[in-house]
Amino acid sequence: MPLGRSPYDYTAMQPSDDQRLYFRIVLEHFRRHGDWPILRDVQRKMVQETGRSVDVLEVLSKFPPDVHPFTSHLQNQAILNVPALALSGEAEQEQADFLVLLQLAVSKYLSVEERPKVSSQELAEVGAMDELRLRKVGALLRLEGLIIGGGSSSEAPYSWEYETSDFVHRFAGVETVQDYLDRRNRRMPEYTGTSHPADRHVPVEAEEEVALARLALDDLHPEILAAAGALFQDGHYPQAILDAFKAVEVRVREISRLDASGRDLMARAFAGEPPLVRVWLEPGQSGKDEQEGFKLIFMGATQGIRNPKAHDRVRQESPERALEYLAFASLLMRRLDDGLESG
Fold first, then answer.
1. Are residues 156 and 303 in the same domain?
2. pLDDT digits (tens, 9 = 90+) for 103-151
3. What residue ranges in the chain does DSSP mark as E strands?
4. Collapsed DSSP state (helix, strand, coil) of residue 84
5. 48/118 same-domain check
6. Rounded distance, CA 107 to CA 179, Å?
7. Are 288 and 280 in contact (CB under 8 A)?
8. What domain range is 252 assigned to?
9. What is the pTM of this model?
10. By CB neighbour count within 10 A (0-12 exposed, 13-18 middle, 19+ buried), where does 163 fall?
11. CA angle, corner 171, sides to 309 and 87, nearest 5?
């Protein structure tokens, strides 16, 4: 992909035909449902439209590192962050709605509220957005690292409310998507053609701390890096841990296709003959014990790690301990990968 005047001048880049098709298919789904399609479904539609074999993971590998959604399996979602929307050249409304949300989040952060929050109700009043637009912009908000807590409703009437992160103050006065991207990417390295997730962010701490953090992060599962890497490097350790285990829960829900959450999701997803989500690798009784053991591990991780950090302001000030939590989440993700490859 040719690069423009700077590594992150997305408007000057020219996506390939397959990348443009990928953008169009994902955006069509996003605009109908307010959420992201599954990669295997996107690949199938690409094959149907082109009449030839298409490897969607190969298509994604050609994006610049900040656009690449760091997906490693066709069961994952096809996610477009704000840089991807800018690169697509086909998402003017979504980008405009995001700017309205960003400006609202900045104003709330700079207000006198003790714990500033931004909500779908406020955004609907400010931007005159219907439910579908609120769903879409809420999905973008969660991707961009602008929140540190909160949640959304799963039943009607749809709503969400999130506490703004300290990261928000960097975008005071932003009026264009390009300005947002410039500030967002200011701490990023030059694009050299690599798509390694560890190259996404360069922390501002001392160089020895940077080296330590990068070495520790390099080996984590790509989806854990995508969900929590930036938060960890910015020192938001509780939110990094929460988002890592949220990503695990989302992955289990996608694979199992169960309409459940938390401990109940894990108990149902890993049970049964055959289980909806397989993690065992060994044959015979060893495999059964392995499956049952990991069912309990996933249940315990949800109840003992994800839930307390979602419902309370848990203090976690140790980067070493935070990395250990992220490594645990990474292990769970890799066992899900192993199960899919062995199934």
1. no
2. 999 999 998 888 889 999 999 998 889 999 999 998 888 778 787 667 7
3. 117-119, 147-152, 160-164
4. helix
5. yes
6. 17
7. yes
8. 197-342
9. 0.60
10. middle
11. 95
